[in-house]
């Protein structure tokens, strides 16, 4: 089963969903993990209390990029309050594999970036992803 999840992560790394610059974004944030060089810029189009569209760009390890791909799939079309309520465990569950403590920051970079983008947009997102 672990091989299946590893293939799943690699597929999201090689062909990330929602990758690219989002036109007409009204919320965005660039997150970085200085320990390993991972970078993600998450862009959101918020409308009527929902995440109408989402896109991300970035570079980094397979875990950070797959996490961003999976998270953007998860939040697209959701109410902002639901996206803001996502936890570290939710993201780890999306990844579906055990993450070592050394890779936890990589896995949670997308969630931290999402929470900061929502907070900067004034949605009141809480900052839970800090590790």
In terms of topology, how is this protein built?
Blueprint lengths: L1 H13 L12 E7 L4 E10 L2 E10 L2 H14 L4 H5 L3 H8 L8 H17 L11
Helix pairs in contact: 1-2, 2-4, 2-5
Task: Kindly list the characteristics that best describe this protein.
three-stranded antiparallel β-sheet; Sufe protein. Chain: A; 5 helices
Class computed from helices, strands and strand pairing: alpha+beta
As residue ranges, the low-confidence spans are 125-131
Q: Tell me the name of the CATH class.
A: Alpha Beta
> How many beta-strand runs?
3
Instruction: Note the overall shape.
Output: globular
Q: Radius of gyration over alpha carbons?
A: 13 Å
Q: What distance lies between the first and last C-alpha atoms, to the nearest angstrom?
A: 27 Å
CATH architecture field: Alpha-Beta Complex
Task: Compute the average pLDDT.
Answer: 90
Overall tally of structural domains:
1
For the sheet with most strands, the description reads: 3 strands, antiparallel
What fraction of residues sit in β-strands? 15-25%
**Can you count the helices?**
5
Going across the major beta sheet, what is the strand order?
Answer: 1-2-3
Spell the H/E element sequence.
HEEEHHHH
Share of helix, binned = 40-55%
* CATH fold title: Sufe protein. Chain: A
């Amino acid at each position: 089963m672990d091989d299946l999840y590893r293939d799943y992560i690699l597929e999201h790394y090689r062909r990330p969903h929602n990758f690219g610059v989002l036109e007409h974004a009204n919320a965005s944030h660039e997150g970085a993990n200085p320990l390993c060089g991972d970078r993600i810029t998450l862009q959101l189009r918020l409308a009527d209390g929902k995440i109408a569209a989402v896109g991300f760009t970035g570079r980094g390890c397979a875990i950070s990029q797959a996490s961003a791909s999976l998270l953007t799939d998860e939040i697209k079309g959701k109410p902002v309050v639901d996206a803001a309520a996502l936890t570290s465990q939710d993201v780890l569950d999306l990844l579906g594999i055990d993450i070592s403590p050394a890779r936890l920051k990589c896995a949670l970079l997308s969630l931290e970036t999402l929470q900061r983008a929502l907070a900067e947009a004034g949605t009141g997102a809480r900052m839970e992803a800090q590790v």
